[in-house]
Fold Oxidase FUB9.
Amino acid sequence: MPPHDLNCLTIAELEALAYTRMDKQTRDYYNEGADSGSTLQENSSAYAKYRIRPRVLRDVSAIDTSTSIFGHKNSVPIGVAPTAMQRLAHHEGEEATARACRNMGVVMGLSSFSTTTLEDVANICSDDGGASDEKPDVQGVPNALQLYLFEDREESRRLIERAKKAGFRAVFLTVDTPYLGRRNLEIRNQFKLPPHFKVANFAPDEEKQDPSAPNDDSRDVQTPRQRRPSIASHHDGEKHVPPSGPVTFHTHAANPTLSWDRDITWLKGICGPEMQVWVKGIATGEDAELAIRHGVDGIVVSNHGGRQLDGAMATIDALPEVIGAVRGRIPVHVDGGIRHGTDVFKALALGADFVWIGRPVLWGLAYKGQEGVELCLRLLADEFRLCMGLAGTVKVGDIGKEYLVKIDKSGFVARL
Ligand SMILES: Cc1cc2nc3c(=O)[nH]c(=O)nc-3n(C[C@H](O)[C@H](O)[C@H](O)COP(=O)(O)O)c2cc1C
Ligand SMILES: CC(C)CC(=O)C(=O)O
């Protein structure tokens, strides 16, 4: 086991260490939630309502934290959630995250809006790619591509075909962004990707490029004709106009036209048997049922880390309804607010098969690049292993709702 970083023994300490290492624009963009931030805050605090019922005298000397995802062994039931533009946190960005995931045996979700191409990330994560000198025996890890399905289908189709060719196992279609949430600091800072970074998967294509577009690396710069509503007003009740011009996240990520029948069917056709189709951003039993009826391979219960609909339920509170509706027919994962190994245990006890971690990975990246991401994953993995042992479980599959109670405001303790 690598020595502890005595400055950083918890995710809260990692957050504090990362704070001073990011410029204000990046820090605000990464850390904030939509509007008042109530859902952001509750995603974490809601975990306190659930308490663990530990069992004892069970010989917990051999604990196996591993689980399987996309046919691969993952060292823990934890993956790195897709988060955009990681070079803002550290100059090696997604490359550093990918190396860390590979070393730690953890699946990596890659944002469509990454600052590294999907091919470069897949190379690092693959069996023969990026073998580090100090760990020549590490196995490759699978990747999932997070997808914002653009109104320009050709652009999305090209991206999906590239992901398939690069060996991505799944597409995670983000479904909670018909509009971008109102993130006030982002608006106030007039956030945009600095010109020396690229949204790498959509590098300019000379033939498609509008000749009137500025010759600038920044994908957020647009001519007045192309300009879509500003971030401050991009959903102020105006008529929807499909985006044109260069792909930027402010113009292309949100897509209010997405719908079950047309889009999931299309996506499954393009992904074919090679890549699974998951939906990321489900929060209700009704939508979980629709997802199954439309043949998706899995669900991520998510509210986008509290960055979209402020006032939405904490994901850990939304999870039981989704689990109840799915009834084991497809895997259900959850993300949002997970900051402790015990949170991972609670999510699994409530029925999730796997969890994904967003901001803590960005904090690790900002703190120490690849080493910081490894630290982040190690902290959560170590805490989770300890929690399993102290709760009396030795296999991930053992973790069920008999290990949990829910405490309401009056202090009433209910078995689940
Ligand atoms: C800075 C940042 C960028 C994100 N970018 C994306 C993205 O490109 N696509 C996506 O589906 N979700 C994105 N997310 C949401 C994450 O995938 C995930 O749902 C969320 O971060 C989980 O919550 P947590 O940060 O509390 O762990 C982003 C989140 C953050 C914080
Ligand atoms: C490309 C962006 C829309 C990334 C994102 O999902 C976010 O900032 O929450």
